[in-house]
Design brief:
By secondary structure, this protein is of the alpha+beta class. Helix content is about 25%, strand content about 20%. The structure holds protoporphyrin IX containing FE.
């Protein structure tokens, strides 16, 4: 898939300026989504390590909203309701080292096969039963998916929505731009990232930048006032 064209970037900036005339970018990441497709009702893509990504996201629109959107009663100001906390991490991938491993070893680091099939043989749209594998013989205890969502055996998605891209900036080499949205940073990104601290995948990743933002609900009437 081609990198975003300058024309597309300009069109996006024009649309933003129509709402906020003084808007100017402070930070920018050029990104692309390889093999962008729908899989089991979820937007999916192929990340730089060669794995399908997006399958573990919430599936229904109610689940998506519950994970990603600030709701009334969350203790947030009225203008934040319907918006989402966004986390961006620019991550460099040690792709040469990764490729040195056999496919089966890479699968054990992720906890799924490249097409999303689970290591216990279940299909990509099923949930694994980690309780049947308490010692991690099939899916190691430090596999990415196992740590990212220990509730996986209950069929409950982690309370965040991931939408990752490959970096299209030549200076990034093999890079991934990890983006996720959540209603609560504490329950979403922060909780998951803490659990991932000891994961086997960490040896192949170097986080080089990123940040935390708030994505307001698309409502030009109040957005204009906020920046007035
Ligand atoms: C370069 C970095 C990363 C790579 C290559 C990667 C790759 C993957 C892959 C291949 C899957 C399985 C497919 C899927 O469910 O989408 C997955 C699942 C997941 N990842 Fe990552 N990921 C990365 C970083 C992160 C980070 C930083 C977080 C959050 C802090 C995260 C959270 C999750 C979650 C919650 C799941 C779903 C687990 C489940 O419910 O089965 N990932 N990731």
């Amino acid at each position: 898939m081609a990198a975003p064209t300058a024309a597309k970037v300009e069109a996006g900036e024009r649309a933003l300026r129509a709402v906020v005339p003084d808007w100017a970018p402070r930070w920018r990441a050029l990104m692309r989504r390889d093999d962008n497709h729908m899989a089991y009702g979820r937007p999916a893509s192929r990340n730089g390590l060669g794995y399908t990504e997006g399958l573990g996201n919430p599936g229904t629109s109610a689940q998506l909203a519950d994970a990603a959107l600030v709701a009334p009663g969350d203790g947030e100001p009225g203008w934040a309701v319907g918006g989402s906390y966004q986390v961006v991490r620019r991550i460099r991938l040690a792709i040469e080292r990764w490729k040195d491993h056999r496919q089966t070893d890479r699968d054990r680091i992720i906890g799924r096969r490249p097409d999303g099939t689970w290591l216990d043989g279940r299909s990509a749209d099923a949930r694994p039963d980690f309780t049947a594998d308490p010692l991690g013989r099939t899916t190691p205890l430090d596999a990415h998916v196992r740590l990212a969502n220990p509730a996986a055996q209950h069929g409950t998605p982690a309370p965040l929505v991931r939408r990752s891209y490959s970096s299209a900036a030549p200076s990034d080499g093999h890079g991934l731009v990890f983006i996720c949205y959540q209603r609560s940073l504490a329950n979403g990104f922060t909780a998951v990232q803490h659990r991932l601290a000891g994961e086997a995948l960490a040896d192949y990743l170097l986080t080089t930048g990123g940040g935390y933002w708030f994505t307001p609900r698309p409502d030009p009437s109040w957005l204009g006032q906020l920046f007035a």
